[in-house]
# Entry
Amino acid sequence: MSYAKLFSLRRNPQSEPIPRTVPNSAGGHAFPVSDWTRLDRFLMLGSEGSSYYAGPVALTRDNAQAVLRCLAEDGPRVVAAIVAVSEAGRAPKQDPAIFALALAASAEGEHALATRRAALAALPRVCRTGTHLFQFASAIEAMRGWGRGLRRAVADWYVARPVEALAYQAVKYRSRNGWSHRDLLRLAHPETGEPDRAALFDWICRGTLAEAAPALVHAFASVQAPGVNGASAAAMIRTHGLPWEALPTELMTSRAVNEALIERMPVGALVRQLGRLTALGVLAPFSEGTEHVRAVLSDRERILKARLHPMALLMALKTYASGRGERGRLSWEPVAAIVEALNAAFYTAFASVTPTGKRLVLALDVSGSMAMGGVAGSSLTPREAAAAMALVTAATEERWQVVGFTAGAGRRWNEGTALTALPIGPSMRLDAAVAATSDLPFGGTDCSLPMRWALERNVQADAFVVYTDSETWAGPVHPVEALRAYRRKTGIDAKLVVVGLVSNGFSIADPEDAGMLDVVGFDAAAPALIADFLRA
# Structure
């Protein structure tokens, strides 16, 4: 008997373990990521969208336990990570960071006091808007009671910021998640000697509008009065900077109102309102509104300052180009100039990347599991996100090949597997490139395919960048074994970058191999991190 046919240190099916691997959710084996890596994944990807093999409840529970273990090990380090991700705008949503901050503010154990103090000190840096604060309050209610330190931190949130900025929060974000400013002010009891701030608190809590209240609050009260027409509302918007959330519903169809709103509308709000503004005729070919939107979306400094995440722009592009909203009956005829501006702004929102000059195989996992769930709770599947992330690298680099891989049904080249060269690249508009992956055949996951394909075809690659959920199980050899075989047979010390698109606990990258790197997909800094690693 040849025992080597039954067991090998170089070639084992993914359904069987190799040293230091653990079972993944799909029935295969992969390397477990550290709790700190999982913290990063959770902060940037969340777990509300679930995956093919694990629902949101299980994913959230596992991620929360990882966060708690990190807090027990080094709570202030966790808080610093939360602040860094939040302030740099690296995550598509704030929700995971706010939830993790609530866990930190509820820490227990040997070093809990330092952790709780760090978390409460970070509250205004992470919870920058009223909505963020309401989310934090909702999360805290599930973790702990309202002690003195927590009430003081909330009071400081209301006292520390300028009065006009606080008034803006009061009229823009009046209530969310079952909480209102009135609820929190009555819990926190902030003290102030400023007449205008005291008048603002009195208006929030009792509805009493004193003369000392900020001008924005008086404007809000005026625009809410019965009988106000579009022209009058537009004038108040231009004079006082009223946000659209402060307006009564009946004024939101006024063209004069919407033309006034877009002049000062924050970038994020403007991107979210593009379809509605087009349906109303405010945005049309060659209109002033369209030129304004193009100018905003081409302003790199403004996009970065607004912390507008690339995924927000990708979702806006996908929705706007479709001509209809994801919910409701709203429809519009897309303006080509705005579609192109959104496409360009997506690339702008990522950190600047210096080309590496390396030969890259950009390998997209297009298996069945990648077509399920949503990235960061969005309608964007991991498969679509993989295409978008690959295009960012392709737009920067000069030498690359994009391939899609699966296992089972599809174009076969070896052992029942399927790998297809994808005709997508930065010359193709982003929404079209993303859509191009949706028609590919489903199948199981075999993340060893890119390396096996390159070896079979004698493709000379310096690195393989694999975009996946790491739920690999169907291949005859583990991905790390395939990479090492590629290195051995070609003489190229090829690297492997794994771009994780689900916040699970697995990776196909061996953490003990210096030539392998695991990064979080849709981290706004990911392309730059990948480039730095490839140059090293």
